[in-house]
Amino acid sequence: MKKNRNLRNKQVYTWQVSLRLFAILLVIALLDAVGISISYTSGKHMTDRMLTLGAQQFRDKFFSEELRQNKYLSLTCRRAMQNVEKETLYFPIPESDLDKSLKVSFVDTWHMERNYGGKRVHEGTDIMAAENKRGLYPVVSVSDGTVKNKGWLEKGGWRIGIISDSSTYYYYAHLDSYTNLKIGDYVRAGELLGYMGDSGYGAEGTVGQFPVHLHFGIYFYENGKEISVNPYEVLLFLENKKLIYSYF
């Protein structure tokens, strides 16, 4: 009887030791996992704090909710987005109060492949016209700023570039025509720049190589280098901020 009782006590003790050992191993595993997680999170925060305007992650996801809510983002990147949010007041294509069918549409075409002039990637967003008619849709400035560039580019056709007070460069390409603005003139947000067209991809005056649309781009300057960012999220932000123009 005593022998059986000792056996049971030994079995209970062995079971308790095994249970405690399992608990210790489980705690060690959990601490290890948490340690890895903390290490990864800390590393990511450090990386975010070091992001520059030229970082591909920043350029690809520019103005996205993910970046705008990232409190660890570098001051340079955060200020760039804050400037754009503050100074962009209107969508670049107004609505028509005379013909509601004259809509526009756009998707995220950032870094899609382009082949004219050699293989390259798209550095902007194309705003497409429902009515494929050049000279119909007005194009307005999304912000206040100074006309920095105006004229023909082989890839961009008739284009105009506006540099804002924060030194952000807004680029409007493939126009059909301009207003009488000159380089150095100051424009206000919502001011007419010209009309949407299909110019470009050839010698000066070339049209008809692609559907009527506006190529819209956003650029920053860092250490003398021009840096393009994805303007798609900015256009989404401005989509409900359209002026009303009379055209048909």
Global structural class: alpha+beta
The topology string of helices and strands comes to HHHHEEEEEEEEEEEEEHE
Number of strands: 14
SS element count, helices: 5
Q: Mean of residue pLDDT?
A: 88
* Main sheet characteristics: 10 strands, antiparallel
Low-confidence stretches: 38-46
CA distance, first residue to last residue? 105 Å
Helix content: 25-40%
The outline comes out as elongated
Oligomeric description of these chains: single chain
Strand content: 25-35%
* Rg from Cα: 29 Å
Question: Can you offer a commentary on this structure?
Answer:
This protein has 248 residues and is an alpha+beta fold. It has helices at residues 2-49, 56-60, 65-68, 75-87, 232-238, and strands spanning 95-96, 104-106, 113-114, 120-121, 125-129, 138-140, 145-153, 157-163, 169-178, 186-187, 192-196, 213-222, 225-229, 244-245. The N and C termini lie far apart (105 Å).
Provide the fold topology.
Blueprint: H1 2-49, H2 56-60, H3 65-68, H4 75-87, E1 95-96, E2 104-106, E3 113-114, E4 120-121, E5 125-129, E6 138-140, E7 145-153, E8 157-163, E9 169-178, E10 186-187, E11 192-196, E12 213-222, E13 225-229, H5 232-238, E14 244-245
What would the keywords be for this entry?
alpha+beta, single chain, 248 residues, two-stranded parallel ribbon, 5 helices, 10-stranded antiparallel beta sheet
Brief write-up:
This protein is an alpha+beta fold and 248 residues long.
